[in-house]
Write a structure and sequence with these properties.
By secondary structure, the protein is mainly alpha-helical. It is about 60% helix and about 0% strand. It has 62 helices and no strands. Helix 12 packs across helix 14 (about 215-225), helix 18 (about 290-300) packs across helix 22 and helix 42 packs parallel to helix 45. It is flat. This is Integrator complex subunit 2.
Length: about 1150
């Protein structure tokens, strides 16, 4: 905006005085500066203030004294004397008129026909007309801005261009905006002023008179701005206006720059504000411009990076202009670069004698205080050229080359600078364009090799130039640039890169705290390029040694290194040479790492671990990832007829997997992504180690507190063990599990069993697999123990039901039964994973071998893969359903328990108390414990059977939720009807049976139909839902249909057990009474018709049934209001002897009476 170059803008001093209402500083302003602020000061003096304090009264007097000598104040006072309400109404009417006219400049309500030009009219007008003229012109511009759809225009207006009346127009503009803020929002006014000449000057005066609106105006202008401001006239005018505003208020310049980056608009403004910014305490290391541009291009926000890169690319397409912000930025960066160059730098190439005489630090030495700044400039130019596509000029390229070949001092910053210089040379070789420059770079590379050891020792860093050059050679090696490889390798004095790499020493105590180029970077790149396998160089020992030399925080390159190493083991470098693979780490080397881990026996106690937890976790990650990748690659390996060896199950049994993962959980910050990677591998390959209950138990197991105890010595020992951490309990695991069988004897205190359960759960968090095997073997029946039959981990994964082949007394010992159920759940999951892995391991190799054997032999089709998968799923379903059926059988009381009063319906008897007089002895479990300590009576709510039933129901609930198909399979198989009250009340998820009961009713077997109706009767009582009602209606309809097709014998066997279910239907859903009554009458009629010639009492019975159906209220009344209606007792002769139809008839009558009684009882 060069048109306002000669005008006086508000100074930062004056703006700050207005912001703070500092009257003393305002009084110190010159008359021209004060003239710009008169609209606000006059309003401040004349309007009634909200601040009624004495200090403001004094300040107001000073303001009035300050204004008393200014002539222009009178005209502003006259402007404030106008009726602004009427003016606003006229302005709104004019806006409506213009809107109807489509924005054309027709009749105006604010301004009548002008006799002269706009400036003459303004000069000869009174204050009101001046306000109307300015308001009409401003509204016209604002309306045009709205209608322009973002296209920039420059409005020619005499009122805003005449230098004679600029100050008066500015006064009118400020007064209008202050008095009519709803009509003239300051952001809209600011947007309109960009479209007139001198707009930036008017804008600064407007904001200076309303200083609180500074941020609002700036944000509005930035939001409405262009993404690339230097591409258009409008963008450049907007940038210049915002730049003037920030020069008026420099304290907010950085905030405005942040808005620019946030909105990704006006990149030139951000650079311009950075060029204008002058910090109070300048940073000698890095300039604000370098920091700002580096942050945009090297930051993590890709949107910002793309936006600013486009600014650089577009700016280079235009001709070089001194006014361009981009060229101003490049000139400033070049000046900063030249300022830090050594004074003696030139393109002169010294000879070897000069180098030796000058020494490593005397030739073109870069001053130490400039090294950091030089590194920052190199990074910035790399970003500008590589990301933003900057094409350097000859002058920039020459000065960059001079800086890159400077010799820094031997400090860590100097090492970093040389590394950056070398990388920049590789990335942008076009910087070297002349033979002299090429010779200069060769001399510099020679200096790097010569000074490598000196820099490493003097700087005290572990990264050297030689290793970096080695890394570069490997990059070229992967691209097969043989000539460059030979050149670089001859410079390094090496013929084979891989042979040298394996001789490079590992980094001691490798962690993320060690920065720079390290040997691990070299090995990783060689592994990725398959250089070791191509040249048959073994790298296994180097990787193993480096993994053993690690500590926290974990280095970010370790996990990619392991992944690349595993890939090089399983995948050959080429199809032509399938044996070109690396060797895996041996099992003995792996065991050496874990031999001192927690969980490996008592010998480790008191001994310091040889390997860190980081090493053990990395080796664990290697094993699990290797096994997973081996399974995933079985198809490719089968095609190549390769089968790499898998690690043995005995090795996995000796690794404390759960303990290590638990330790890693507390080191998540130091381990980076290793913990989450281990959890993923664990959930995939060892799901039985990821049980939710175990993770919850880990939070509780450390919270044990010493309980006061007066128990015998065993109790005191066990309670002392509860004070130990799970890791410290490991040496006692074998003793605890071996003694479990002794705790099954009678009269063992319940507290001992509960304490043992807590200790077992604690050990389960650190060594679950070994603990489970020991526990299963310890709980075997005495006959098996005598035969010394010992199960292994593999046995239990192949057949999880071994867990339930334990001593029968465990089934009536709740603390031990809890342990057995926990192991059963884990081994069922382990079996699924085992069979899945087994299927993948064998499928592809079996198919490959079968294909080879069947070549040329017709009539031998391959076994379909789907058959193998179906067989596996069938086996898993059989295992799960068998486990459920066994557990349900455990819930049944034995004959002795039935004689003592145990009842499977105990879960439904939550209101009743324990049955008195019951013994505490059972054949399954002679549990007399609790007699001494707790005094709990057996039977009722506190019996062992009841507690075991609750534990089993909880496990079945989890299994049904995890796989609803198990629930369907078990109920299609059926189980004793006596267990239905228990399962319906104790398994919350059993309501899913309502989904498949219609399918069960459609089965041809009467036993399944009877079981379905009995199950439905309990579900209706427990879950009186609309879905239950619809299924109950279906069941009644099925019963009616079967009545018409069943033979006499089948009719009796079908209806006798299900007639009581009709009572439950009516109790749960009274609207079903009519359907049930009709069915009962129909059953009675069918039976009566079969025995009409045998029993004279049948016809009167049918009449009674009709009477009961039609007038149940009369029967209730005749019963004398008793809550229970009873039928007269009948002898065997009266019941027709053994005639099933007669018995069924009287059973129907009894069902009728039960329904009526239950209805009466419910009322």
């Amino acid at each position: 905006m060069a048109d306002s170059a000669g005008l006086q803008f508000v100074s930062p001093y004056a703006f700050e005085a207005m912001q703070k209402v500092d009257v003393v500083r305002l009084a110190a302003l010159s008359d021209p500066e004060l003239r710009l602020l008169l609209p606000c000061l006059v309003r401040m003096a004349l309007c009634a203030p909200a601040d009624q304090s004495q200090s403001w009264a004094q300040d107001k007097k000073l303001i009035l004294r300050l204004l008393s000598g200014v002539e222009a104040v009178n005209s502003i006072v006259a402007l404030l004397s106008v009726d602004f309400h009427a003016l606003e109404q006229d302005a709104r009417k004019e806006q409506q008129l213009r809107h109807k006219a489509g924005g054309s400049n027709g009749e105006s309500i604010l301004v009548s026909q002008l006799q002269h030009g706009l400036t003459l009219e303004f000069e000869h007008s009174d204050p009101l007309r001046r306000l109307r003229l300015t308001l009409s012109e401003l509204l016209a511009i604002m309306n045009k801005v709205v209608d322009s759809n973002g296209e920039f225009f420059l409005k020619s207006s005499e009122l805003f261009e005449s230098p004679v009346y600029l100050e008066e127009v500015a006064d009118v503009l400020c007064i209008l905006q202050a008095e009519l803020p709803s009509l003239l929002p300051i952001v809209d006014v600011a947007e309109a002023l960009l479209h007139v000449r001198n707009g930036d000057w008017f804008l600064c005066l407007l904001v200076a008179n309303v200083p609180d609106s500074f941020n609002e105006v700036c944000r509005g202008l930035i939001k409405n701005g262009e993404r690339q401001d230097e591409e258009s006239v409008g963008g450049r005018r907007r940038t210049e206006a915002l730049r003037q505003l920030c020069q008026m208020n420099p304290s907010q310049a950085l905030n405005i720059r942040a808005m620019v980056v946030e909105e990704c608009h006006l990149p030139g403004l951000g650079v311009a504000l950075t060029l204008d910014y002058k910090p109070d305490t300048p940073d000698e290391a890095v300039s604000p411009l370098v920091s700002y541009v580096s942050g945009l291009l090297l930051g993590t926000n890709s949107k910002v990076r793309t936006w600013f890169s486009m600014f650089i690319r577009n700016g280079q397409q235009r001709k070089r202009e001194s006014s361009s912000v981009l060229w101003q930025m490049r000139r400033q960066l070049l000046l900063e670069l030249v300022a830090i160059l050594p004074r003696s730098r030139s393109t002169h190439v010294p000879n070897d004698g000069d180098m030796e005489e000058g020494g490593g630090s005397g030739y073109s030495g870069l001053r130490e205080e400039h090294v950091v700044k030089a590194s920052a400039l190199l990074r910035l130019y790399c970003a500008l050229m590589g990301i933003a596509g900057l094409r350097p000029t000859d002058e920039e390229a020459e000065q960059l080359l001079q800086l890159m070949t400077s010799r820094p001092p031997a400090t860590p910053a100097g090492v970093r600078f040389v590394s950056l210089s070398f990388c920049k040379l590789l990335a942008f070789p076009t910087l070297v364009s002349t033979p002299e420059q090429e010779q200069l770079m060769v001399m510099w590379l020679s200096w790097m090799i010569k000074e490598e050891e000196y820099f490493e020792s003097a700087a005290g860093v572990s990264a050297s130039f030689g290793e970096m050059l080695l890394l570069v050679a490997m990059y070229f090696h992967s691209n097969q640039l043989s000539s460059i490889i030979e050149l670089v390798c001859s410079t390094l004095g090496m013929k084979v890169v891989t042979a040298h790499a394996v001789r490079v020493a590992v980094t001691n105590n490798l962690s993320a705290n060690i920065t720079g180029f390290l040997p691990i970077h070299c090995i990783y790149q060689l592994l990725r390029s398959r250089a070791f396998t191509k040249h048959k160089v073994s790298i296994k020992d180097w990787i193993y040694r480096q993994l053993c030399e690690t500590t926290t925080p974990i280095h970010t390159q370790l996990i990619p290194l392991i992944d690349a190493y595993i890939n090089s083991i399983l995948t050959p470098a080429s199809k032509a040479n399938p044996e070109a693979t690396n060797q895996p780490i041996t099992e003995q080397e792996i065991l050496n790492v874990f031999q001192c881990s927690a969980g490996q026996g008592e010998s480790s106690r008191g001994a310091r671990q040889r390997y860190s937890i980081t090493t053990q976790l990395l080796i664990l990650y290697y094993i699990l990832s290797y096994e997973e990748n081996l399974l995933a690659s079985t198809k490719q390996l089968a095609l190549m007829q390769r089968k790499p060896k898998s690690y043995s199950a005995s090795l996995m049994d000796q690794i404390p997997i759960k303990y290590l993962v638990t330790q890693a959980q507390g080191l998540q910050q130091e381990l980076g992504g290793l913990h989450s990677a281990l959890l993923r591998l664990l959930a995939t390959n060892y799901p039985h180690l990821c049980l939710v209950e175990d993770w919850v138990c880990e939070e509780e197991v450390t919270a044990f507190q010493k309980l006061p105890s007066s128990s015998p010595r065993l109790m005191r020992i066990l309670e002392h063990l509860t004070l130990l951490s799970p890791g410290d309990l490991i040496p006692y695991a074998e003793a605890l599990t071996a003694s479990m069988a002794l705790l099954l004897e009678p009269a063992v205190p319940r507290r001992i069993l509960q304490t043992l359960n807590k200790l077992w759960m604690g050990l389960n968090t650190v060594m679950p697999r070994r603990l489970w095997v020991m526990t299963v073997n310890a709980l075997q029946p005495s006959a098996k123990l005598l035969r010394q039959q010992r199960y292994t981990q593999n046995d239990l994964m192949v057949d999880p039901l071994i867990v339930l082949r334990c001593d029968q007394r465990v089934y009536r010992c709740p603390p031990l039964m809890d342990i057995v159920l926990h192991m059963l759940n884990g081994y069922l999951l382990a079996s699924k994973a085992y069979l899945h892995c087994h299927l993948k391991e064998t499928a592809d190799f079996d198919r490959q071998s079968q294909t080879v054997s069947n070549l040329g032999v017709p009539g031998q089709p391959d076994t379909p893969e789907v058959t193998r998968e179906e067989l596996k799923n069938a086996l898993l379903s059989a295992q799960d359903s068998a486990a459920v059926q066994i557990l349900l059988e455990v819930c049944l009381p034995t004959s002795e328990e039935q004689q003592l009063g145990a009842n499977t319906e105990s879960l439904l008897k939550s209101i009743r108390g324990p049955v008195p007089g019951k013994s505490k002895q059972g054949s399954l479990g002679p549990r007399a414990r609790g007699n001494v300590e707790d005094g709990e009576p057996e039977g009722g709510l506190l019996s062992d059977l009841r507690e075991v039933q609750c534990l089993i129901c909880c496990l079945l609930h989890q299994m049904f939720i995890a796989d609803p198909n198990i629930a369907k399979l078990v109920h299609f198989q059926g189980y004793p009807q006596a267990l239905l009250p228990l399962t319906v009340a104790g398994i919350p998820s059993i309501h899913i049976c309502l989904d498949f009961i219609p399918e069960l009713l459609a089965q041809p077997q009467l036993e399944k139909q009877i079981f379905a109706i009995q199950l439905l009767s309990y579900l209706c009582t427990q879950y009186a839902l609309p879905k239950s009602l619809s299924v109950a209606r279906l069941a009644i309809s099925v019963m009616g249909t079967l009545l018409t097709v069943l033979t006499r014998a089948k009719r009796f066997s079908f209806f006798m057990p299900i007639l009581p279910c009709l009572v439950a239907f009516c109790q749960a859903f009274p609207p079903l009474y009519d359907d049930v009554a009709a069915l009962l009458v129909q059953v009675g009629q069918v039976c009566a018709s079969d025995v009409a010639t045998k029993a004279r009492d049948i016809d009167p019975l049918i009449a009674r049934l009709q009477y009961l159906k039609e007038k149940p209220q009369t029967v209730v009344a005749s019963g004398g209001g008793s809550s229970k209606l009873t039928l007269p007792q009948r002898t065997a002769e009266e019941l027709g002897g053994t005639d099933p139809d007669v018995q069924l008839c009287y059973c129907v009558e009894a069902t009728f009476m039960d329904i009526i009684s239950s209805t009466l009882h419910g009322l």
